[in-house]
Amino acid sequence: MNNESNNNSVGTVYDDVFRTMVTDSDELIVSFLNEMFNLGIKKGSKLVRYQNEVFLADESKRITDSNLSEQGKNIYYHVECESTDGDTSILFRIFEYDSAMALRRATYEDEGFVIKYPMTGVLYLRDSGKASDSLKMIIESPDGKNRMPIEVAVMKVADYDLMSIFEKELYFLLPFYIFNYERELAKGIDEKTADEIIECFQMIKEKLDATAKEETIDAFTRQLIARMINKVVSAVARKHIKVTKGVDEIMGGKVLDYPEKHILNRGREEGREEGREEGREEGVK
Predict the structure, then answer these.
(1) Contact (Cβ atoms closer than 8 angstroms) between residue 171 and residue 130
(2) Tens digit of pLDDT for each residue in 33-82?
(3) pLDDT (tens digit, 9 = 90+) per residue, 181-232?
(4) Beta 119-124 vs 76-82: how paired, if at all?
(5) Is there a contact between 6 and 227 (Cβ–Cβ < 8 Å)?
(6) Cβ atoms within 10 Å, residue 83
């Protein structure tokens, strides 16, 4: 979970956008997971969502940013969205979340109690240069003779320019692209810089329209991305009305409620219910 979300309402916007895309679009999350974990999940594969609430040893409840698996596969994925890099406390939180998830799915086999951890990663929205390119958790046996490393994948929005985002179909990153301008926005920008930012999002809009026309993404996904871009830009550039208004106009403002959306939402709700049912079954094991 974004470490700003406990401090102010702006921070929760990034978490909400991340979770919305995870929840609403298999199309967006599949390419994102493939890049983060170097996987080969096929385009069009269906994902199962599980409950995001985890209960820790002290009985407190936390909300994770994602809890997924590919339909029919016994591999689970957990990715957290972090606004600030360089804070290693994320590893403690990840371990708590992963352990709770693993215990929920634990099984007893001939050789003993089996606890399977998910593949885990962190998406850093900001890059101050403090974050490592990889993170690791190490579980040590009581006698100290055995150590099991658990790799935590790292992705940084700043590592991807628009060309690589569209080439790799990492449309999931587009709503967070405004973070590349955050330093300039924080210092205060002139008209020229504001125009440059607006032109960048005009280019994003045109590329999105082209991919939708080519049916690389569907109309719902295109609208979802545009809506999420508006939400993040409104938060990051909230002091710069020209930028927020310009991006909002480019991305289409209010998302229309069209029949196809109802159909897609109904299908996604059926998928979520499947995940909830599997989650209930896991809790009984």
Answers:
(1) no
(2) 999 999 999 998 999 998 887 766 666 777 889 999 999 998 999 999 99
(3) 988 888 888 899 999 999 999 999 999 999 999 988 988 899 999 999 999 9
(4) parallel
(5) no
(6) 22
Q: Against a cut of 0.85, is the pTM above it?
A: no
